[in-house]
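Subject: for your reference before the review

Hello V.,

The reviewers asked for a structural picture of the protein, and I figured it would be easier to keep everything in one thread rather than splitting it across files. Below is the amino acid sequence we used in the manuscript, unchanged from the supplementary table.
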Amino acid sequence: MTTPESGALLVPRRAVGELQGSYEVAVVDGDNKVRIQTANVGQRVDDLWVIEGGLKPGERVVAEGIQKVMPAMLVNPIPFRGKTAADT
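And here is what came back from the structure prediction:
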């Protein structure tokens, strides 16, 4: 397994959509509205993508139901809970 460099921005693989060779994420703003933006992805590490551009640390991305969200849609975000050692 390749380990990302320290401080790398990681998002769940399921939060990144591919459209005609480019990658997109649905970001939730401070008003809980969705916007779709392009992300530059790097390597995959387990179930995560390393994000090399297009997102800033602290931005919230949609990880579940990404196919159902649309720009300007109001959502009720719930923090994502990834795998833990207890899940394996």
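For the response letter, the relevant points are probably these. The beta strands are 9-12, 16-19, 22-28, 34-45, 48-53, 60-61. The chain is about 0% helix and 40% strand.

Happy to draft the paragraph if you're swamped.

O.
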